[in-house]
Amino acid sequence: MKAALFTLSLNDGSTASVHEAEENQGSLHTEGFAALNFRSDGELIEILGEVPPNYPASALLAVLGGHFCHRKKSAQVRVRLRAGRDFAVLAIRLGVFDTLLAADAHQVELQCRRSTFWQHPLPWLSAPASAHTAPFYQFSGEKRHPQRPPLPQGEVYRRRLPGLNTEFSLRTIDPDRDLQAFNRWMNLEQVAFFWEQAGSLDEHAAYLQDMLADPRVHPLIGCYDDEPFAYFEVYWCKEDRIAPYYDVQDHDRGWHVVVGENKHQGIGKLKGWFNSLMHYMFLDDPRTQRILGEPRIDHDRQIDFLKSQGFGHLKDIQLAHKKAALLRLEREFFFDRPL
Questions:
Q1: 4-118: CATH class
Q2: Which residues are CB-neighbours of 62 under 8 A, at least 6 positions away?
Q3: Ranges for all domains in the chain classified under CATH 3.40.630.30
Q4: For position 1, what pLDDT does the model report?
Q5: Membrane-spanning regions, if any (predicted)?
Q6: Which of 82, 148, 259, 324 has its CB 3.0 to 4.6 Å from that of 50, i.e. a possible disulfide?
Q7: 224 in Cβ contact with 166 (< 8 Å)
Q8: Could you count the other beta carbons within 10 Å of the beta carbon of residue 291?
Q9: pLDDT tens, position by position, 197-209
Q10: What's the DSSP call for residue 120?
Q11: Residues with catalytic annotation?
């Protein structure tokens, strides 16, 4: 059997994977069930054989992943399978598909748009999402905002990048594990110029503890093939210093970045981590409709890159420690393009 095109863990801990048998043919393997063979003809995938009773509809995400992750220009795909209408309705309500195209007593045909597939959290999130928290409001000073959930430990996101032949992952920073690298990165000349956070190990240990204790911020380590290369701060905008400068919404998020390892500075790796980080922020809470950036006004390279990736330049703002360009990315735009 060839290596899996796409693998995911289901909610019960079992796995589902798709393997290519030959061109335009493959098989879906789900633990506890016999393999389902399928054939693909352009934008139609036909599952051969009857779908067993109690088959997990979310396992079909592996078939969709095998399609969309290797056919980036595909905007949608239809899946035809021998199952009842109840199975089709369940699959749509679980977010696996978005449209029931046809149904009779023995067969259904479903549609999944590219944006539907990429907005499903199951293939990507390694920890429970913020989305599960009910909206309960509190004040931080004079700022009223939803109560934020506590930070998960360990890995929160993982994604295979076939074009780069690598895996990108995010995990909550662990000072015991990451302090040395964080200290080295923050003392790099270019990083120190923009972040103004150069310092000693003790100073950086205190800084990270402050970040981990702040419910507004999620400090993260980015890895390629589990090798740390970057530090990210993902934050909720409603209680941040940028909130007074635009029409802030409850679940807007912003971010800061330090790429500390030169070998990961190329344009391919840049687009890889950028798209994955934006993906994670949108997946972590579907109520997040906008992502904000506020780079220093003289950071031309970053501003130009963000504009090229769909960020709109709202205005220039004067913060206490810097003059910044305020930029915004809309959820609909992000998921409407190939990832």
A1: alpha beta
A2: 6, 7, 8, 16, 17, 18, 28, 30
A3: 130-335
A4: 61
A5: none
A6: 82
A7: yes
A8: 23
A9: 999 999 999 999 9
A10: -
A11: 294
